[in-house]
Write a structure and sequence with these properties.
Radius of gyration: 19 Å
Oligomer: single chain
Helix content: 25-40%
CATH architecture of the largest domain: 3-Layer(aba) Sandwich
CATH class of the largest domain: Alpha Beta
Largest sheet: 6 strands, mixed
Catalytic activity: shikimate + NADP(+) = 3-dehydroshikimate + NADPH + H(+)
Structural class: alpha/beta
CATH superfamily of the largest domain: Leucine Dehydrogenase, chain A, domain 1
EC number: 1.1.1.25
Function: Involved in the biosynthesis of the chorismate, which leads to the biosynthesis of aromatic amino acids. Catalyzes the reversible NADPH linked reduction of 3-dehydroshikimate (DHSA) to yield shikimate (SA).
Number of helices: 9
Shape: globular
Family: Belongs to the shikimate dehydrogenase family.
Distance between the termini: 16 Å
Bound molecules: NADP nicotinamide-adenine-dinucleotide phosphate
Order of helices and strands: EHEHEEHEEHEHEHEEEHEHH
Keywords: Amino-acid biosynthesis, Aromatic amino acid biosynthesis, NADP, Oxidoreductase
């Protein structure tokens, strides 16, 4: 538990809701391990109050914040500066105050990339499938582009929406030096070709409390040659999709790796210090066993 003093620097999490978040435990454990006089607090903010909340952070002298659902895009026009990567993805998940100016960054992209590297999966020149086309899918697509992915199948319930997302990214990626790989939007139920190395689920379906929900029917076979199923959900730590993959003999990973690495990158942006990764990982895992 952080000891709050008159000198304590504050950061927090803007979202609605935020009660489920593991970020306060992760960051407060990191501040304590590094002996930093900092604290991380949950900041539940309704969508209609976001502008007031950002003004409040400025007035209260916060050093920065994380931003989560549903504010990652809505926060952009309220800031003084947006990093090229956050602008390319159209989503901000980290804010930092730099000499009174509020800068929006995106650490989800590099966070997912590091999580991918950590599980030892190379996607360079390979084919990958993504389920969903929201903010997390855009970050995953940027990370895959940085990793040199060959091509991507984008499974979505609305082909129109998937095409619209791709048009936006085609226009926004080059400004951040990103090359959009060939992406094929298909319906959720459409068959997937063989040779896909990773299936990445980026929708909230299956997240607590609806833990039985799953967009992958139990009798649908996974594509031949699949090496990993990655679910960005971490609550529950083993989703129904992950369980189906494991039954089929395919290694499955939850979203804790991405959460850890995006958090570590935010920690460094705020404090200028390298994050104590293993302390943060242990704090996240402790919550699973408590
Ligand atoms: N592990 C991490 O660090 C991390 C980081 C970021 C996000 N996440 C997780 O990723 C998930 C998505 O976040 P997000 O920011 O991308 O949300 P988002 O921008 O709201 O996008 C959600 C996507 O899921 C689709 N979707 C929602 N309900 C669906 C359903 N019943 N059937 C089919 N598709 C459905 C949406 O489709 P429509 O476009 O048709 O609405 C949209 O494409 C959340 O569970 C979040 O917690 C995890």
């Amino acid at each position: 538990m952080a000891r709050i003093r008159g000198t304590t620097r504050l950061v927090g999490l803007l979202g609605w809701p935020v009660a489920h978040s593991r970020s306060p435990q992760m960051h407060n454990a990191a501040f304590a391990a590094m002996g930093l006089d900092w604290a991380y607090v949950p900041l539940p903010v309704r969508p209609e109050d976001l502008e007031d909340a950002i003004r409040g952070l400025r007035a209260l002298g916060f050093a920065g914040a994380n931003v989560t659902v549903p504010h990652k895009t809505a926060v952009i026009p309220l800031l003084d500066e947006i990093s090229p990567l956050a602008r390319a993805v159209g989503a901000v998940n980290t804010l930092r105050a730099v000499e009174g100016r509020w800068v929006g960054e995106n650490t989800d992209v590099e966070g997912f990339r590091r999580a991918l590297q950590e599980i030892g999966l190379s996607v360079q020149g390979q084919t990958v499938a993504i389920i969903g086309a929201g903010g997390a899918a855009r970050a995953v697509l940027a990370a895959l582009a940085l990793e040199g992915v060959g091509e991507v199948f984008l499974l979505h319930r609305s082909l129109d929406r998937a095409h619209r997302m791709l048009e936006t990214l085609e226009a926004s990626f080059p400004a951040a030096g990103l090359r959009l790989p060939p992406v094929h939007p298909i319906h959720l139920e459409d068959p997937l070709p063989e040779g896909i190395v990773a299936l990445i689920h980026t929708t909230p379906v299956g997240m607590a409390p609806d833990v039985e929900a799953c967009l992958w029917p139990p009798d649908r076979p996974f594509p031949w040659g699949l090496q990993a199923v990655i679910d960005l959900i971490y609550e529950p730590p083993r989703t129904r999709l992950m369980a189906l993959a494991e039954v089929a003999g395919i290694p499955a990973y939850n979203g804790l790796g991405m959460l850890l690495h995006q958090g570590a990158l935010a920690f460094t942006l705020w404090t200028g210090q390298e994050a104590p990764l293993e302390t943060m990982r242990a704090a996240l895992q402790e919550l699973d066993s408590s």
